[in-house]
Design brief:
The chain is mostly helical. It is built from nine helices and four strands; from the N terminus they run αββααααααααββ.
């Protein structure tokens, strides 16, 4: 009986150990290092001096502001695209597996590879500007202008992670009870609710939230 009781922990142990070694330990060690200073290759306790210096560093605040801008724009955009794609795939009759793999592939692409590809595509004479030029649109300084550089980052990050989130949403949608779907289809007064509102689902704490009129 004891073996059966502890069996799940034996299976979990490798994952927990790897997580502790490669995730928890580096985070804790980095936090400890933030209170240290190095002189002559030896660490000594510096208290809050590093944080005080950081608080007066203009580059840090600029980076923090840019991060919040990307967070406020890119994340809602990415999740919105992901949930629309998931709703479309959930209602697809053919080639569902092919499209699912195609949209998911960017998330497993090497970070270095996709960074190089996008930097080449977004160069002054890159593919994107050539396509824009074909429609008479002036070349955009994607990599040199601060505003367009943020747009380039948003574009690249959305391309990479929208498919990953789409798979999560799709898994949740496929677990929606048939009764809930039939109820959503009827809408008010027997009208069919829109496809997106019928099938949109958000995954949080292992549960799905359904949106319908």
């Amino acid at each position: 009986m004891k073996t059966k009781t502890y069996a799940p922990y034996y299976f979990l142990a490798p994952a927990v150990i790897l997580f502790a070694v490669f995730m928890v330990y580096p985070i804790v060690y980095s936090f400890w290092l933030s209170f240290q200073t190095s002189q002559g290759g030896e660490l000594s306790f510096a208290g809050l001096d590093n944080y005080r210096r950081l608080a007066h560093d203009g580059i840090f605040w600029t980076a923090l502001k840019n991060t919040f801008i990307l967070l406020a724009i890119q994340v809602p955009l990415m999740l919105g695209i992901a949930i629309v794609l998931a709703a479309l795939l959930n209602g697809a009759k053919r080639f569902k597996g092919l499209f699912r793999v195609s949209f998911f592939m960017p998330s497993v692409t090497s970070l270095v590879a996709y960074s190089i590809i996008f930097s080449i595509m977004l160069m002054g004479d890159g593919l994107i500007n050539q396509l824009l030029g074909a429609f008479g649109i002036k070349a955009i300084p994607w990599l040199s202008d601060p505003i367009w550089a943020k747009a380039a980052l948003i574009l690249a990050m959305t391309w990479r992670w929208a498919g990953y989130n789409m798979v999560i949403y799709l898994a949740a949608m496929q677990n929606i009870p048939r009764g809930a779907i039939r109820s959503g289809r009827s809408g008010r007064g027997g009208r069919r609710a829109p496809l997106f509102l019928r099938h949109a689902a958000a995954v949080e704490a292992g549960s799905a939230v359904y949106f319908h009129p």
